[in-house]
What we know:
single chain; alpha/beta; Rossmann fold; two-stranded parallel ribbon; 8 helices; 13 strands
Amino acid sequence: MLNLVACALTLCSDVIAVDLLDKAELIGILKQTRPDYIFHLAGVIFTRDWGEHYRGNVETTVNLLGAVKETGLKTRVVVPGSAAEYGRTQASDLPLVETRLPNPVTPYGVAKVWQTAVVRYYAACGVDAVCGRIFNVIGAGVPQGLSIGAFAEQIRKIKRREALPEIAVGNLSSRRDFIDVVDACRALAALAQSGRTAEVYNVCSGASVSMREVLDMMIKSAGVDVKLTTDPARLKDADIDDSFGSNAKIRNETGWSPVVSLKESVDALVADVLGAL
């Protein structure tokens, strides 16, 4: 049976909590469990604090990959990257390919660029690590810190009559490449099996849609009649007009491809949020 390590380590039916900032503890757990695969899914997203981003995304990766190196294990480590690493690009740059130089416009994007650099460094040192650069995740369980999750929470309150039938929005004309959470997980599993050490792979749908289109789909799926109001606080200082990637590399090298449609993702998200009603 294969063992898996992420932000917590799963061994058969047991879950072992691991502090990824404690390298000595990590080494002990790795020696005890000797995992075949590690999915490094721990990290920090919703903060503007540079220190939190560094500790949560970079230092944890340094400790984990360093611990794998010191134990001498042949474990395959899969580290999720982010489309935020690409940042601001021109229309002529689309679709984004993995060789595109990073141009992040947020602290999170910068931290993920550092994290990818750490993966490549340790791969050069003999650690079997690969990076899946995930674009905008959608589906059941999307956190409220993301725009789509915030829309879903507002729809939930409207359905419960806890709020007026109004949804506060930012820039709805921006376009993003959405990938269902199930497809993203399948992609990471495919990279664990078939990805090449030290390589970066886009995990994306290969097309973009506007935030307005997605929100309209959510409203229709929830069956609510709402008014949209622009909230200046939700407008980003460094917004990106359009971003979508090429998934040719992961398709060609692993056989993975997205199978969940955007409508199915939206319906799953709305059903998950409204399920408690």
